[in-house]
Amino acid sequence: MFTGIVECMGKVVEFTPLDTTAAGGNGASLAISEARGILGDCHLGDSIAINGTCLTVTEFSEDTFKVGLAPETLSRTNLGTLQAGDSVNLERALAAGHRFGGHFVQGHIDSTANIIEIKPEDNSVWYKLQVNDPKLMPYIIPKGFIAIDGTSLTVCDVNDDEHWFTIMMIAYTQTHVVMPTKKVGDQVNIEVDMLGKYVEKVTTSILRGSSDADGSSTSSYIEKVVEKVLQKNK
What are phi and psi of 177, to 5 degrees? Predict the structure, then answer.
């Protein structure tokens, strides 16, 4: 579990499509440097979020660490496009008893989005992003949470038909995350608010169970509930 409050920015040392070392495990791996600030209490097997993606530490030194990348991770995130020298957001897993400053972030990337507009306003910056998986739009709501490359941000505007949303980034955040290094057309990782997913799953199960019990459809069940409420209020 993470908070979306980026602790530091690291630098990509190397993305290796097939790492045959013990730490690479004969799969893809990613090595990150300039991470001294989060490695003081690191252990093998710990979770660190890189651009919002929860990954397992397989090797580390005072300043550098390595993680393995599964095919699922590469297909859902922008990590496979990273090159040596690129900056990345880093956050350790949340420790019990610490202040919770962002929102519940699992580090399980849902999809990517493309930056389609960048517009400064005073000392802040507007970003408009188009989601690559339209099925995620119901979970993106105005004033709701979203994690972009692991940064906890507040959604401003939403256009469900065109699959885009906006966020505004304040000056302080601009100096502590990788977003300002991006340009129009670049891809970012997004994780929508997981609480919305749970609410939908529970509600859908309840409605499906209620409708199955008497053979009626979900819509007719809702109509019956509304009718009962209206009758009570007469």
Answer: -135, 170
Catalytic site residues?
2, 47, 54, 56, 70, 108, 154
CA end-to-end distance (rounded Å), the chain: 48
What's the Cα-to-Cα distance from 217 to each of 32, 166, 204, 222, 231, rounded to whole Å? 53, 36, 12, 9, 21
pLDDT tens-digit profile of 157-182?
999 999 999 999 999 999 999 999 99
CA nearest neighbour of 152 among 182, 198, 193: 193
- Taking alpha carbons only, the member of 184, 34, 33, 10 closest to residue 87 is 10
- Distance, in Å, from the CA atom of 117 to the CA atom of 129, rounded to the nearest integer, reads 7
On whether the CB atoms of residues 186 and 83 are closer than 8 A, the answer is no
pTM: 0.85
Phi, psi (rounded to 5 degrees) for 4: 85, 10
